[in-house]
Amino acid sequence: MKYLVTGAGGQLGREWVDFLKIQKVPFSDFSSVDLDITDIQQVKTVINREIPDIVINCAAYTKVDEAEANRDKAFLVNETGVKNLTDCCIEIGAKLVHYSTDYVFSGHQNDQNSYPDGYPENGPIGPINIYGESKRAGERVLEKSAADWLLVRVSWLCGRYGKNFVKTMIKLSAERDQLKVVDDQTGSPTYTFDVVEKTWLLLQKEVSGTFHLASKGAVTWARFAEEIFRQRGVGIRINRVSSDEFKTAAKRPSFSLLSTRKAEKCGLQMIEWKSGLGLLLQQIG
Ligand SMILES: NC(=O)c1ccc[n+]([C@@H]2O[C@H](COP(=O)([O-])OP(=O)(O)OC[C@H]3O[C@@H](n4cnc5c(N)ncnc54)[C@H](OP(=O)(O)O)[C@@H]3O)[C@@H](O)[C@H]2O)c1
Questions:
Q1: Residue with CA nearest ligand 1 atom 37
Q2: Which amino acid residue places its CA nearest to atom 19 of ligand 1?
Q3: What is the pLDDT, as a whole number, of residue 204?
Q4: pLDDT tens across 208-223, in order?
Q5: CATH numbers and ranges of domains, the chain
Q6: Residue 153, SS3?
Q7: What is the predicted pLDDT for the residue at 246?
Q8: Is 119 labeled as catalytic in the residue annotation?
Q9: Where are the beta strands (DSSP E) in 201-269?
Q10: Is the distance from the beta carbon of residue 131 to the nearest atom of ligand 1 less than 6 Å?
């Protein structure tokens, strides 16, 4: 099996590259500079040259707040880019692995009552911001296509590479003695090393379709921040605030939990979010 990774300079893409090296399987990886997935000619040239069996798309427009003012750009990468990859994968018979997000759901607080374990894969779609809409448009491309695809939704992604909440908290704690953190959004911090390993296992099982991969357990951002500092032994005051007190350009879902029952039925066990945090903090050093 030969693999091709797009968006290989991002936090998930870099984790995939490390993982594939350890697996000692043939692969090629392309950052946004080497392969722009919105450029159909470039995508065709690269895919027809590399002839991968599996394309792992880690490329995405992920700037949630900036997407509000850059709708076209978000859709260009998250919808048209996915269409380009899908079309080229069909041509050479490759499987496409694509990542999406909990933000395709509306995340209303009340949904917690209907879905106490989190949204199932076929839960009610209803993004509340442009980023979520653009990611949903990418999902629709796969759902309507004749390609062999594996769509993996993840939430609150954190890893050793790139920017994420854990690294931001650590950086801010070196500069301030107290922090305001939102306490009315619930979700599950999910780790790139776990997502890559579990996606790999899904690929070994040769399954297709949509799967949720998210750590076990649920927490708010504020309680997550407290746990980060507890595990690192940093004494800092966390002021728990509401989303209304912490205005952002894009609205955020209050309830971001993804049910992983379907993955569990395939024999996968996601890590629990606190243990995963411990492993990530060791990696970050
Ligand atoms: N981060 C999260 O909390 C989160 C949560 C749920 C789901 N997800 C999903 O998980 C996946 C991986 O996210 P991530 O956190 O690894 O994102 P990331 O760190 O922002 O990486 C995305 C990568 O895509 C590249 N890219 C952007 N436009 C491109 C284009 N036109 N052609 C090729 N590459 C392009 C970016 O390159 P440049 O930096 O050069 O633009 C970047 O390296 C995405 O599908 C994302 O939507 C993420």
A1: 32
A2: 10
A3: 97
A4: 999 999 999 999 999 9
A5: 3-164+189-216+257-273 (3.40.50.720)
A6: strand
A7: 86
A8: no
A9: 209-212, 219-220, 237-241
A10: no
